[in-house]
Amino acid sequence: MSFRLKTILGIALIELTVMAILIGINQFALGGSASTQLYERAEATARVFANAVSDAVIATDLATLDATVATAMETEDITYLRVRSPSGFVLSEAGDADALAMPFVRDPDFETATNDHHIDIDTQIVVQGTSYGTIEMAISTLKVENEIAHALRLNLLVAVLGMSLVAIFGYGLGTVLTRQLHLLQKGARAISDGDLDHHIDVRGRDELAETAVCFNDMAQTLSRGQKILKDQRNRLLEKKARVSDIVTCMTEISENSGTPEVPDTDRDDEIGDMARATVVFRDAMQKVEQARLEQQRLISAFDQVAEQVVIFGLDGKALFLNGAFREFNQPILQNLTCGFTHEEFLREGCDQGQFGVIEDKEAWLEAYAEAARDGAQEIHHAPDRILLTVETDVDGIGKVVSAKDVTDLRQSERQLVQASKMATLGEMATGIAHELNQPLGVIRMAASNCVKRIDRDKADFGQLKAKFERIGEQTERAARIIDQMRVFGRKAEGSNDPIDLTASLTNVAQLARTQLHTLDITLKIDLPDEQAFAMGEKILFEQVLLNLISNARDAIEEAGIEQGIISLKADYNQKDGHVITLSDNGSGIPEHVLDKLFEPFFTTKEPGKGTGLGLSISFGTIQDMGGCISATNTETGAQFQIFLPDAEVETALAS
């Protein structure tokens, strides 16, 4: 895309945005004001007519009533008018026959009235607090609708004219800005073809003109440099023979075969420089000790790094410990001798309880070694620190082990997850309140019946027992709902325990189904009969599932689906492990954002409705469980799949 086109498109985009905002504000203000005034006018007209016919209705003077209705229908905006008695009998009516034939439904607002292009409104005929009938009437909305449409057409016409002017001015501006650029491009091609004497015609005094001046200076410099290089090449060819003798001397010095005398050190040209450099090289060999001291200073600087670092040699023994490592692990190092191995360090730490309570030390060491081969891993260090350790093999040196304190980072992550859970609980509050009201209503009615029977001395022991049993059942039902919320609201503890996938999926479905039901969204769940386990933290795993269900709910609401469906399905012991699939019939995910979906702070929701962290946290949680999560689009909506490795049943049950 050319610079000129970019300029035109940029200006046009700005103009389009401004015009769209102005048109939107204008249409909103005009439509809102006109529709409100018309609706208020309809209500006022109905009240005035009710007052006008009240005497005729009370006296059942149908002739006067018909005349009054006919007179009111002379107003062109009134579509129809009907007067009903308190029993619903039509006393008088006039107006559009088709409208009168339709069942009367009061329009709550202007937007609803636009469906049939008139406002259906009614009011009671009340005299001294007594209702003598009802006025039903309709006011046409076509005039207001036509005015709004006409205003929209005018706004669009102004926008088109404005965009046309912007395109013309943008083209002219782009032409002026790119004229000097074309000259620079032509000059660059000439230089690349070897024409170093090419000169660019400088026009103007702006930044592009200054660039053209610099380009000409560069071309002149390159031309002079090319001539100098040619001269130097000729001189070097002449001196090649002398260089051969000096190279022979350098070879003898590098092979430590002697300390030859270097010729031509008194020359003032390049040969003399090379000869003197050879002498410097010879003297440098005598300064190895000085280099060793420089190396020691480098190690001293490395010792100041805040991250813990220890280097083990090729024989497995410790060669270097920086200050941070020595200070943090002082209790362990006190019981170790110099030259300890990595395994000795870990064993001593286990014996002192520095890595938490470890029941099987050998199994812990084996698991640590396996995890170290796969990459970075976290170690819980007493009393409450978390270290991220990395082991790196370095050729010719050995193994470098580094450890970074990530306690504060993990605490922040847990706080973020807890905040997300609390937000989810808040979103589900309405549904849960509705679910709790059902058993509470049953309890209230049963208790009230018992009290009434006791007051009337008609209490029957069997009936009272049945009522109290029902109260107990409903109390247990409410307790289960509250217990689910209490368990879900607990803070994550950073544990890694076996998770019963079926139980977790069932709990999440029960927790989410109530809220979804209030939104006319059906949650379908399809789980195998057998059990399956995965390693992780149950609270965090269930939070991932609730996040996905919440996103599916938002997608369905945004798409305006009347019968929303969310499907939660599990397939255990597949080729890729345990597969959990969550799909919906919402609007799907835009193809251009699929690759960014799990990035932190990326969201497709409107500002204020999403932080962009839910899917990022879910991705990290599933990854910590050794699995992965993916998102795709299906024919009906979006689909998320979670793949989790299997935790052996014996290990899971034993834990």
From TrEMBL:
EC number per UniProt: 2.7.13.3
Domain of life of the organism encoding this protein: Bacteria
TM region(s), chain numbering? 7-29, 156-177
Provide the reaction this enzyme catalyses: ATP + protein L-histidine = ADP + protein N-phospho-L-histidine
Where does the record say this protein resides? Answer: Membrane
Q: Which Gene3D superfamilies match?
A: 1.10.287.130, 6.10.340.10, HAMP domain in histidine kinase, Histidine kinase-like ATPase, C-terminal domain, PAS domain
Give any GO molecular function from the UniProt entry. phosphorelay sensor kinase activity
Output the PROSITE patterns linked to this UniProt entry.
HAMP, HIS_KIN
Name the UniProt key words of this record, in alphabetical order. Answer: ATP-binding, Kinase, Membrane, Nucleotide-binding, Phosphoprotein, Transferase, Transmembrane, Transmembrane helix, Two-component regulatory system
Where is each Histidine kinase domain found?
A: 431-648
Return the broad EC class: transferase
Alphabetized InterPro entries for the sequence = HAMP_dom, HATPase_C_sf, HATPase_dom, His_kinase_dom, HisK_dim/P_dom, HisK_dim/P_sf, Sig_transdc_His_kin-like_C
One GO CC annotation, please? membrane
Looking at the keywords, is tRNA processing present? no
- Name the UniProt record assigns to this protein: histidine kinase
Organism in which the protein naturally occurs: Pelagimonas phthalicica
Q: What is the lineage of its organism?
A: Bacteria, Pseudomonadati, Pseudomonadota, Alphaproteobacteria, Rhodobacterales
Q: Which gene encodes it?
A: dctB_1
